[in-house]
Amino acid sequence: MRLKSVWISEYKNLRDFTLTFDGDSFLDIFVGKNGTGKSNFFEALVEIFNFVFASTKRRSRIGFDFDLFYEIDGDDVRVRREGGQLQVNGANRSKIADALTPDNVIIYYSGHSDKITSTVDQYARAYARRNRKWTGEEAREFISIGAEYKEMLLSILLMQPDDCAARRYICQKLGIEVTSETVTLRLSPPRFKHSDVEVGDVASFLWGAKGQSLVFVERLLNCVRGEFTRDSIYDRGQDRYTIRINLELFREEFADASSSDLFRQFDNLKTLGMFEGLSIPIGLGDGRPILVGDFSDGQFQSIYIFAITEFFKDRNCITLLDEPDSFLHPEWQFSFLKQVEDIAATEAAQTNHVLLSSHSASTIVEANEPQIRLFEIADGNVSAVQRDKAAVVQSLSAGLITFSEREARLNIYHNLKNTNGPVLMVEGVTDEIIFETAWRKLYGAEVNRPFEILSAFSCTTLGRLMRSNEFYQDNQGRTIFALYDWDEAYNEWNMNHSQVVQNDVSRCLAKKRNGVDGYNLMLPVSEEHSCYGQVVNAATGEHYKSKSSFPMELLFRDAPGVGAHFEIDPTRPGDCQRFKGDKATFAKEIVPALPPAAFEPARPVFDFILHTIGQ
């Protein structure tokens, strides 16, 4: 299954929009800043496939014209709708043959799209109407994965054999293990008209369920260890069945069933309104129990992603992952694409075409160049153009990253794996360039720097790392310094569980985290600096904390020939100075041209680091 091309007449900001899919990779990546049309393209695809699925049963409607060209099981299929007329492979039709449509379109949307939600809900209601007898014979084509699938997805993954790649990745990344051989399934009455459960009445078991849903639940009963009756697993007061599934018996009973088959069976119970919950006891590596609700959004996003690729890799599918990496831990963003490919690439290359949108530069760094398309807006029109990876990274980074990937060092996690010894982490890529230049200017290019300088990409990421016990555990034996600007980043500097070890603004405020070699530093600002008053109240001698205004560039405000790069900040009193212009140009072109004396304001940072590491 593979998309070959899509044409959209007009949908939101997509006008006369054409996208062609070249190559045979199972994964295509779409990138671009927010507002360029990535999500609109996914919404339009959802609308188109909703029309296609509906057209297998009746004449259907859609609010725009389109041309959809794809390959399925070796056959080319072109579905075109223009001027109210449906064409299939060039012939006018009122319906589409089932054999010509995908098995599934899977949607994962990390943000919020009313259009996607309403379209999928509309499909689900139509599906439910067709299954009022709740036999579960018809599998859903549209499947939208969201928060309501959390427990189900994690449990089904953990019920897979130990050698399942997705199961292995999840256990490794979350640091969990299964702590019990019993999985608990809870079933509630279906949303349709149904029978009351009567004790001793076999026909009323499972509220009178029939068809595939009944067959599946009866097979699950084969996985219950020990004596029980159908009446004993039913709670009349709560009108609920509780089935305690033994994991060993389950794997024997469903040895021939694929993970996608199992997901569809549980999902049918959910669609019919019977599925209330599926839980498996889990614990951390040290044995402490943990609940599903204890995981962060980012951690569960990885569960969604891995579950989708595992459960549908053997189906003819289109999978739409809209910014699935948006909440992922920075380190996970770097490894995200590799892990998806490890799970799905072999089998999915022929059956599952995954379309992924992202605006994470960290994710894109690990992508293969031919896979990347950049959404751009020019003259009010949206286009998706092929771009080399360096150009894509530059666009996603809002111009802050204009150097090679090696120079940019997009993520502190990624780079720590490739370095040794002490490290100074700074807020951004331009800060990294500036301090690398400062060392060369102050000490000479021939003098070895006994510590690394790496960018953490933002002050919030930097602060989160310095507060993370896991971060220090992963980097034992290393002394880590973090440098912050004088602005709201002060709040990140002022971490708990730490002690002030240097309380001098001119030498750089310094805090040490208790029990580890982690130091938070504030930019040094000498009393002689013209912008000293933007940090310290002259009347009281106290600094303004997070209300200060002294970013990295202001270190050079008093250097000769840089006045054009600064201006009075009209939003602050007292003729405060602020930087203006392009940070990357300033860091790469202006700063290196300054004389060594201009870098003296940065020397206290190096003095503190060298003293601390004994150099």
TrEMBL record:
Signal peptide: none annotated. The keyword Nucleus does not apply. GO terms for molecular function: ATP binding; ATP hydrolysis activity. The keyword Nucleotide-binding applies. It comes from the Bacteria. Residues 246-362 form the ATPase AAA-type core domain. Keywords: ATP-binding, Nucleotide-binding. Pfam families: AAA_15, AAA_21. Residues 1-82 form the Endonuclease GajA/Old nuclease/RecF-like AAA domain. This is ATP-binding protein. The lineage of its organism: Bacteria, Pseudomonadati, Pseudomonadota, Alphaproteobacteria, Rhodobacterales.
